[in-house]
Amino acid sequence: MFFDHVIVCSVTGSTQAGMIVCFAAQDRPRKVIGINASAKPEEDRAQVLKIARNTAEIVELDREITADDVILEDAYAGERYASPRTRPWRPSNWPRTSKA
Fold this sequence. Notes:
Blueprint: E1 5-10, H1 14-24, E2 31-36, H2 41-58, E3 71-73
Parallel strand pairs: 1-2, 2-3
Helix pairs in contact: 1-2
């Protein structure tokens, strides 16, 4: 099975940048979509690009990493990242206890 798109949380940018470089070295094209979880998407986009370019140079990648390689979805950043809850969230698979 081959996934042509991979989604990753991106805050500091290092994981997304490393994946961009790794996939750029492969024969089959693949996109890395970062889900930005900070309130600074433009700064984060620049950071991902900087880390990816530096990493590509270190590993001697045979092509340039460009801004088009950095896909950062910011619809979930800042206040949009989470919604307040009136009670704590509890996964349905957590053990339940009962009082006797």
